[in-house]
Amino acid sequence: ELTMNSLKFVLLAGGRGERMKSSLPKPLQRLKGKSMLERVVLAARKVSPDDIVVVESDSRVKKKAEKLGCLPVRQEEPLGTADALKKALPLVKDAKDIIVACADVPLINGETFEELYRRHKEDKNYITLVVARVDDPAGYGRVITEGSKVKRIVEEKEASKKEKKINLINGGIYCMKTRGLKEYIIKIKKSPVKGEFYLTDLIVITAGERRKNGYMTISENQIKGINRPEQLEVAEELI
Q1: pLDDT of residue 237
Q2: Under DSSP, is residue 191 helix (H, G, I), strand (E, B) or coil?
Q3: Would you say 88 and 9 are in contact if contact means Cβ atoms under 8 Å apart?
Q4: Active site residues
C-alpha cells in the first residue's frame, strides 16, 4: 500500500517543442480543453496525492504548475532528461520511489501509474520501465531485454540495423528507487550525438551495479508522445 512519502512524481516539462510550430510551450498545448501538463498531473494525482515536481524551462509552464498545486523546478539549459531529473532530486529525496514521466504523454491514465508502482514493488526492481510493442518503432528508443529484465535502451540515432528491427519501444515512463540515484545519475555521460544527458543510460549504469531492472508493457496509445500538430489531432480523437 502507499504510505505517506513513499512515492512521488517528477514530470519532465522542459521541452521546447519547436516542432509544434506554436508560440505556446509544448506542455501547455491543449487537448479537449485541458493542457497536456494538466492531464498528466491529474493521472498522477490518482495515485499519489503528494507533491508533484514539474521540471520546466519556461515561466508560463512554471505558472501553470503552481496553479495545479505542483512544485516547479527550473532547468535552465536543455541538457536532456537525466539533467532534468537531477534538478528535481533534492525535492523528492525523502520518497522511497519516484515515477518519472513526460508532460507530453497526455493519454496516460492513473491506473497505468498505479499498476506500474505495484509491479515495481512486487518485482523488487530498481527501475521499472513502461514499454509498448508497436508495428512501426521508427523514431523511438528500442528496449533490449533478457527474459524479464531490461538490459539497455538504444536511441534510434545510435541503433544498429539489427536493433532497429526491435519493436519493443521505450515509453519514457519510469518507476525507480531513489536510493543511490544521485550517485548513478552523476555517472551518465553526455551523448556524443546530441550533447544531452539521457535518462535511458541509467538502465545500463544500474544494471552494471547489479541492480535489477524490469518492464511493464502497455498499449501504444497511452504513451503516444506529442511532438507535432498532427499528433495532437490524433490524440484528441483518441480521447
Answers
A1: 85
A2: coil
A3: no
A4: 19
